[in-house]
């Protein structure tokens, strides 16, 4: 096996599988895109990103049971039987293999706050007509009257079917078959309504735009396929399109060099725009940052809740200015030795402590960005087939600088398994993929409403500060200091379409058709709808031109025009003079 072709998360999963079989992958299903077999005769599979030459012919990989979803492209997605990882890594046509990860789903007052009605009136009543809005989310309620006659297709990735050109999985639905797909979560229906719902009171920003819906299984690779799908269908129909993704994660290097961001950057262009939510971790201590001086050791402390986490994972990245060695100390005082970068062969070492099993991955510089990635995985230590939860308490992650230069270090906790505590906590760099994509418009949330009356005529007060950036909105910049988010838009509490198939909290429901939600998930489709209006006016606008328009028409209160802030981006959008 060519270990260095594999990114750390994938190699960790493969090591677990080799050592313990399929049972070892159960905790990984939540983070990696592991596809459990439907029966004992089928192999367990993982969804991966494959890096290769743009025009490489990979058809020969089918002999190993590897199903590649695209015939061309530098970054492709594939279904990979786990036992075929050896053969794939040894193939000379393959440059790099990265895992697909599981991402998370992150207008009555709002439209007037940012002057959407004035913008429409000034521009011959723009409505988004002739523009496609693609929603990659939990699906849509196709029977909701706010979308009547405007849903062109649904690619439901969770259904059994022959799939589409971009991937032979899921089912593409049109016409009367649209109702086969249901949004049992409700997130996607709400998002679609903000962008394009038609209603006299709670209508969306672009109420005559047509919709392409991808009900996603939230695998990162399948989200990449969905982006390709929407833009391909839009091209075939001769329409400009904007894709909305109100989802994200923190497995990536937070600099736009991850696989999904690369796909987005390669697919966008004139008339092809992507909008992403910044994330909702503004109040969460998921990020730690430090400058480690030469010859010094820096300690980051994180808390694992007692009896709650089956696995705890930390994703660390540091600059190529120097090299760090890493060690882990458990709450009971047991430690692993300092592990350096391992440039050849298997770069994962496993340590058995008296209270825990620890795996540390320290590969050589990542070819995508030239920096170093350290991945640490912690499990409980059990007997026989029983694996207890991770040891609860305060853990210490220690980094020793063995080089002659200062090294900047950033670490994220993953999947809510732990949170940082102490002086290393940094309320910054919390925007992960796909919001890191340089071509994407990344949207922060602004609070236009902090109370409303629910369906039971009860006043619901959320405790947000009115008319300012929402405290939950994730901060930038990116790890490479690129400026994100781009812009802020209304994100709390936004009233939009309610899915009839979702079991929604009654306190969030306004009436039988609408509900209120908060999040950057709500802010992103607001900008997607606005982009649809701009594309109706000029279908050739590209991401650079649209970002410039948004930047010039956004501002931070009491700050000079053009000021960037890691929480606000360039400020709240004002559509009046767009």
UniProtKB/TrEMBL annotation:
A Pfam family the protein falls into: Peptidase_S8
Signal peptide range: none
PANTHER family: CEREVISIN-RELATED, PEPTIDASE S8
Domain Peptidase S8/S53: 128-290, 425-571
Family recorded in the similarity comment: Belongs to the peptidase S8 family.
Active site residues per record: 137 (charge relay system), 187 (charge relay system), 521 (charge relay system)
CDD domains (alphabetical): Peptidases_S8_CspA-like
InterPro entries cross-referenced by the UniProt entry: Pep_S8_CspA-like, Peptidase_S8/S53_dom, Peptidase_S8/S53_dom_sf, Peptidase_S8_Asp-AS, Peptidase_S8_His-AS, Peptidase_S8_Ser-AS, Peptidase_S8_subtilisin-like, Peptidase_S8_subtilisin-rel
Keyword vocabulary terms for this entry: Hydrolase, Protease, Serine protease
Organism: Brasilonema bromeliae SPC951
Protein name: Peptidase S8
